[in-house]
Fold this protein.
Amino acid sequence: MPFILLLVGLLGGALVSLLVISTTLAQGSFRITSLQAQNAELARQAQTLTNQVAQAGSPAVIAKQARQLGMRPNPHLGFIDLKSGKIVVGKPSRADAAINVPGFTP
Amino acid sequence: MTVARPGGRPPGAPRSRRGYPPPRTPPAARPARRLPARGDQTRRLGVTLLAIIFVLSLFAGRLVQLQGMESGNYRKLALQERDRTIVLPAMRGSITGANGQVLAMTVAKYQVTADPPQIPLAKRQQVADALAGPLSMTPAAILAKLQHPTSPQYVVLAKGVPAQASGQITALRLPGIYQTASYARSYPQGSIAANIIGFTGTDSHGILTGGAGLELQHNALLAGRTGSEQVQIGTDGQQIPLAGSRDQPVVNGSSLQLTIVPALQYAAEQACAAQVKKTKADNCTVVIIQPKTGAVLAMAQYPTYNPSDVTSVDQTTNLAVQAQFQPGSTAKVITASAALERGGQTPMSAYKIPYQLREDGQLIHDAEWAPGEHYTIAGIIAHSSNVGMSQVAKHISEQTQYDYLRAFGLGQPTGVGLPDESDGDLPPVSQWYGDTRYTLAFGQGVATTAMQMAEVYATIANGGVRVQPTLIQGTTDSAGTYTAAPPSPSHRVIQATTANDLLQIMQQVPGIDAEGGQPWGVIPGYAIAAKTGTSQESNGTCALCIYGSSWIGIAPGDKPQLVVSVNVQNPRKGGHFGAVVAGPVFYQVMKDALATLQIPPDGTTPAKVRLNAP
């Protein structure tokens, strides 16, 4: 009788542990799938944002937006010596800007 | 009934078998009827047994066949049901400018498909409405596709859907709507530097492949290596754990960091475009080189193209390395340096400049003719006298002249690292005519690329040492390790003193041009060395009617950091001289370059060089 109980116990134990192991593994697998999906989604976001930043940082876009704000490229080259605080080259002069910044009144 | 039968009952013997038992008789005497009856049973048993054995052995045989002989095959078939080889496409590396600004990158694009039977009829309008926004299509168009799919269970709704829209669609959780991702190339800066970067297409496996420019030149490096993964999947599409997989790891492409400064490249492209439109020229190129390192900071051209929308391969030509033109006066410095080093001449050697010169039957005259001048060699270069240069050329042999032209890089690719770079056209001495040495002295009878001419001046700016130009600052592999490009190979072409002499002579040019009303080389605070050039070329219909205008300048002063080379081909409006057509582009670009690269004023004034001989 104890022998039979032992056998049944062993058999039952094996069955239960098998069940636990396979459930755990399957769970891990599902978790991997879900994390992979999450990873893909985040990579997608990162890509979109990088692309947007690169686009916004393009000289052409910056030039266009600066223009819309009324800024104009400075046609005069000027340099200030930071040590002496003196203008080394050039003469301060107004560019023909049409200032168009929201909230700005000259 | 008494008829005796052989072996039969003797007459008079009891008839009935039910009577007392008959006397024992030997078996032969047993009634004949019983023998066949017992044999029948045994035989039937035997036959059945045989049949059973036969059938069972068929089964056994089949079992052996299935399990023993064909087991491998069936196992393979079963595995095929579960096995999936996942192709892992490598992500193509990006291309960035000198400051890390992204010029080309890889993004995921999505194909959106529908399985109409999975969408209830009543919900179709709702699905179409929801998708209209992200797909930028009308609900009616989507509904039409859902109602009339290409096959009963499949219809492509949209291709090339960007990641953002794809995310929105995923969030909608619509039934029967599926998305598959693929890689696409994005050029976030638009057409900026398109002539350098090139474009990509997809090959038969859907993998991005370079079609021109650096995308083509460094295709293998950028592409990386496609990987694969073999997995077993369950019914839900998830991997079966521990089922064993054979993997070929994917190696993503490396990224290229260029020497190109996008802001400068843009400024140069804008200046080129404006001048081409103004002068109705064929095209314009600008090359900016850092002489010390050979780094190409900008290589602009107009017309250019949008790398995301290439309509023909012709438009992807990089003019600076693929288009040839006769350089004209900008090539004078080459023959001049040969005469200074090998012809016993000095910058102060004096020449008489006659009205015109007849050399080997060819009349040579100057663009801006000043009769009866006495120029030094410095004056001949600064005033760009063809008549003068023809006389200077007489001091050296044809072979020496050829050697110098060759040493300065003419007639061979510069090695800047772009596909299909042109050699230009420098005929060997054996093919020269009697007057070739004179025309070569002022840059006619030889074809060069804009890059080659920029390199000639970069060599002079770098004290006579020619550094091979390069576009690549370094590479970053898929693991993120940055490797700086090795320094470009360099070699000495002319002596440092010769280079310095030429630099000082060329510093006179902006002043001379300014006196002539073309102040394009005058930037306050900087001593700029410059040389203009105007060449004439023939085409099929006219002789020497196509002008090429160039302006090449070196700044600042005696420690040059920049060479800016401008060439405008075939201007049809507003003159054709280098100073007039290419000058404004040079001025604009050089000023932008000095400011962008924060090169402080050198505070020097142009060296005093005597141009007129006594």
Summary: DSSP finds 20 helices and 23 strands in chain B. Confidence is low (pLDDT under 50) at residues 1-14 of chain B. Chain B has two domains: 86-115+131-167+176-258, 262-306+318-471+487-596.
